[in-house]
Specification:
- The protein folds into two domains: about 150 residues, no CATH class; about 190 residues, C8orf32 fold.
- The chain is built from eleven helices and 16 strands.
- Helix 8 packs antiparallel against helix 11.
- The chain starts with a strand and ends in a 5-residue tail after the last strand.
Length: about 375
């Protein structure tokens, strides 16, 4: 007998009908044959109703690929819980991704089922393999971690799905809305020019879930992750109001001081044991953040309020920001013939003012890892 399944998904629910023939058992151990059998059984069942419902939901809610994958994860979990049978759960994810048009692949080895998807984007912290000059990133690496065998290659499963042709994008260009009850108030404060400023920001724990397994993407994609509407509206208008009577340089200085002192500093290696980049909304949500997180938040605030040209400047152990004005302040950083004023959004041992670069960085080599120009972006 068919079941009607409803999955809570941010501010809405995803509904689909689960027919009994869609609940396929995974035969024996992992092998080319067992996976082929699973696929053929599922493909011959009435799978299209779920796939069509997934795609329709994606279109209606304008889900980017990363959020769509979160929906597919929840759908697979509803059909075959991850804890009950991890391999079966993974096969459902792969099947729905492939039937949705993504070029997703499987590989096996060490009694593990590895799930890959094709992308051309810069991802630095998860394994990948190359096929015909195409890069396939591991989507379920976080489930294995140290158990992932980097020494011996996994054996790809030879299974062609005609509709699985599209690349997957890790770009998060739009955050979902959440139900009002998902938000709670977070109080942050800092001092600027001997005056205390206080904010009650609406934040949602769901944001952490969205990015729990999000990889380290390229700086341009990372810096341009937006905020959800409720969080945005609880902070950006208040900041705009506070700086509206200030000269632009002072207003950007205000945003720098907010980013630097409204949050506790904690290094990722100490807190997480690995590199972990927070989106601007995650930095607002969490109590601790490091220089990557603050650089991204500062960039976002300046872009939203002033939309000025900026560069992200990467040193061997630090990242900072610089903003372009008609007349720079302090010792500027020159990039592509233009001068940028340093704004340090992370607390330092020195009390750095507008245009100051930390002493220990002045003789170090740096790389401009992202340049934002409002006229061309």
């Amino acid at each position: 007998m068919s079941q009607n399944i409803a999955i809570d998904f941010y501010d809405d629910s995803f509904n689909f009908r689960l027919d009994p023939e869609l609940k396929i058992e995974l035969q024996d151990s992992l092998s080319q044959q067992s996976i082929q059998y699973f696929y053929q059984k599922l493909a011959s069942a009435n799978d299209q109703s779920i796939v069509q419902s997934l795609i329709a939901y994606k279109t209606r809610h304008q889900l980017n690929d990363w959020l769509y994958y979160q929906l597919i994860r929840k759908t697979a979990e509803a059909i075959s819980p991850k804890k009950a049978n991890y391999n079966r759960y993974t096969l459902y994810k792969w099947f729905f991704m492939s039937k949705s048009g993504y070029d997703a692949r499987l590989a096996i080895g060490n009694n593990q089922l590895i799930f890959y998807v094709r992308t051309s984007e810069e991802i630095t912290d998860i394994p990948y393999f190359m096929v015909d000059d195409h890069k396939y990133m591991c989507l379920n690496y976080h489930d294995y971690g140290k158990l992932f065998n980097r020494d011996r290659p996994y054996v790809p499963i030879a299974l062609h799905i005609p509709e699985a042709r599209e690349q997957f994008s890790y770009k998060v260009t739009k955050m979902p809305d959440f139900k009002p009850e998902a938000y709670h108030d977070k109080h942050v404060a800092f001092n600027f020019n001997h005056k205390a400023y206080h904010f009650n920001i609406k934040v949602a724990d769901e944001v952490s879930n969205i990015f729990a397994n999000y990889p380290v993407v390229g700086f341009e994609d990372y810096f341009n992750i937006p905020m959800s509407r409720e969080t945005y509206n609880s902070l950006i208008p208040a900041l705009k109001e506070n700086v509206k009577m200030m000269p632009v340089k002072k207003g950007v200085d205000y945003l720098m001081q907010f980013t630097r002192y409204a949050f506790i500093y904690e290094d990722d290696e100490t807190y997480f044991g690995q590199e972990k980049r927070f989106s601007p909304e995650q930095t607002l949500l969490n109590n601790q953040s490091d220089c990557d997180d603050r650089a991204a938040l500062f960039f976002y605030l300046v872009k939203e309020i002033y939309n000025l040209p900026m560069i992200a400047v990467l040193y061997p152990t630090h990242i900072t920001m610089a903003v372009q004005f008609d007349k720079p302040v302090g010792k500027p950083i020159t990039y592509n013939g233009k001068q940028y004023t340093v704004y340090e959004p992370t607390p330092q041992k020195e009390n750095l003012k507008l245009g100051d670069l930390a002493t220990h960085l002045r003789t170090q080599k740096f790389e401009v890892v992202y340049a934002y120009n409002p006229k061309s972006d």
